[in-house]
């Protein structure tokens, strides 16, 4: 089965609910029109005026559907509703004719084309075979519901096995709808801004004290302290004597001599 057919059939229960709930709607608008409608002029389309009112209210409800998938399914559900409502529907031609007659009747009431007119040609033999299969399943379920199985089959073992099979389906039908839970926000504890500042300052002070102790009272200080430079010394060209730097204030006349002024230690 094609994907679009699966989507269409999955929405049929919603369409059926729309069709069945027509009794809750005020039907005075269509009741008068359906009562004076002559069935013989439309191939005995509605021998019962209630069926006419139901169909018109269903088509009116579809016009307010905004979802395109649901709208398409609702129009195709009308084919299925025609199939099991009218007993003389046995082929696709009769089904399409009833479908078009109902839409034409709606147009005569409200003087506007219905959106389901766009799907009047969407039905085919495959779709018709699906409708027939659904109709058979529907009748089969109705027959089972009308029979009292416990009286027909008085076998205790059979009834126990039947209850086991029915249990998961019954639980699925009565299972409550769980609404999505609202996310719970955990409140955050308020943190004082002074605490991290004090911790930071205390850490910096502690690092400075430890660095001073290591530098002053341990051998690591010698590695951290740069080597002291002594007095600037120069090597004399003669006998490699060491010359001390001249003191500040030495006369410039002395510097004019061609020989070094040696200050021997």
UniProtKB/TrEMBL annotation:
Lineage of the species this protein comes from: Eukaryota, Sar, Alveolata, Apicomplexa, Aconoidasida
KW Transmembrane (keyword) present: yes
Transmembrane segment boundaries: 193-215
The protein's name: Variable surface protein
Keywords: Membrane, Transmembrane, Transmembrane helix
Highest taxon in the source lineage: Eukaryota
């Amino acid at each position: 089965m094609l994907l679009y057919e699966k989507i269409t059939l999955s929405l049929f229960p919603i369409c059926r609910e729309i069709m069945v709930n027509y009794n809750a709607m005020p039907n005075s608008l269509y009741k008068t029109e359906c009562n004076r409608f002559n069935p013989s002029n439309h191939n005995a389309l509605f021998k019962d005026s209630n069926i006419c009112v139901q169909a018109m209210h269903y088509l009116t409800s579809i016009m307010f559907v905004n979802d395109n998938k649901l709208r398409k399914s609702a129009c195709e559900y009308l084919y299925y509703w025609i199939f099991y409502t009218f007993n003389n529907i046995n082929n696709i031609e009769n089904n399409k004719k009833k479908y078009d007659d109902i839409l034409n009747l709606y147009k005569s009431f409200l003087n506007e084309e219905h959106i389901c007119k766009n799907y009047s040609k969407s039905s085919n033999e495959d779709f018709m075979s699906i409708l027939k299969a659904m109709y058979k399943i529907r009748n089969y379920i109705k027959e089972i519901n009308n029979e009292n199985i416990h009286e027909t089959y008085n076998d205790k073992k059979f009834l126990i096995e039947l209850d086991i099979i029915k249990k998961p389906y019954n639980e699925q039908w009565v299972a409550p709808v769980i609404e999505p839970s609202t996310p719970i926000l955990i409140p955050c504890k308020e943190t004082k801004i002074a605490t991290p500042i004090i911790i930071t300052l205390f850490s910096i002070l502690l690092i400075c004290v430890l660095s001073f102790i290591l530098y002053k009272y341990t051998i690591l200080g010698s590695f951290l302290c740069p080597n002291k430079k002594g007095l600037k010394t120069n090597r004399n060209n003669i006998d490699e004597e060491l010359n001390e730097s001249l003191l500040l204030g030495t006369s410039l006349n002395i510097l004019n001599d061609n020989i070094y002024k040696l200050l021997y230690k």
